[in-house]
Amino acid sequence: MSRRRHAPPSGLLGLVLFLAVAAVVVWLLWDRIPGLNTIPRPDVATKPAPSPAATGPYEVYFTTPVYPDRPETRRGGIDERFVQFVDAATRTLDVAAYEFDLENVAQAMVRAKTRGVAIRMVTDSDTVNAVRDEATQKALKIVRDAGITIVPDERAAIMHHKFAVRDGQEIWTGSWNLTVGDTYRLNNNAVRMASPELARAFTDEFETMFVQKKFGAGRARGQVNPPFQVGAMRVQILFAPEDGVAQKIAERIGQATSQIRFLAFSFTHDGIGQAVLGRAQGGVSVSGVFEKTGSETRFSELGTMKQAGLDVYQDGNPYVMHHKVFVLDGKTTIFGSFNFSDGADRDNDENALIVDDPGFAGRYLEEVERMLTLARNPSSVRATPERQLPR
Which domain holds residue 181? Predict the structure, then answer.
């Protein structure tokens, strides 16, 4: 038996047609009528907004520690962004990680390995030998059980890198270690950059460690990589100890003409400190934040800068302020794994990037101002330091 739909009354049919036409007209003119596009479209409002630079040459991330840190609030951090970075790998992934205890990152690496991505890892031998650290050993076991090779540095100085290279096209680096503490307790930064040239430079550094098993001072000094163009940015990559990083940072600080802002987990290098003091004496505005742990020792540059009357503070995070950042004249940003110390300059495996671009610098200046505000109004609570200061 066939069924026929009853035709609607002519008046109702006209109303339906009118509403349909009106809807089409509104849709087509959505972005042309002032005020109309403030009303969310049903099919757009439910979609998460992409990160502003998600498809651009870079993304910048900062941690936002909350005290007290609780497992139930650990979500939305840099770790989740790095998992996305790993999940997007299609061919190769190299990871150089000073510390490593993030299970979600370990599982992402396993997923990548399962879909055919060639994965290699380098870490510090202290991390491998931390047998009482259950989270670290669990994360390492997940990676090893998937057949991913991990090469430790096997020496007293530290493999202090925190970088990854994906598919020979993009790099990830900064002050952020692949740990829960670095993600949800410490103030940190991380950057993703799309640049085959930068990827090649980081891959060369990685292979010196992974393939040649050469770390720190065991590597011969070579030619420093030339600056690369990444979108509108000029990016200089420096590796310690072979590239004389501290001297080059001091030279760039010495070129500052109006403003120096910095965030320093460990700041004991006299050459860099003298460069800051020299520009301050030349009339350049200086403000900075030191991590409290270690900053009251005779080795820290904090005391000297305070005596010179500079606008410097100990940080206000109850845990640890882990940044290693300079921003010069609102247009040059220096960041990476490199602490401003003799050990970082002479012994460790480190990286520092010098980026010339006002827009990029603006992102870091926002973080500097946030840290300065917190330092000027510190929390009365002080948690146990997360770690000893690296040499």
Answer: 58-376
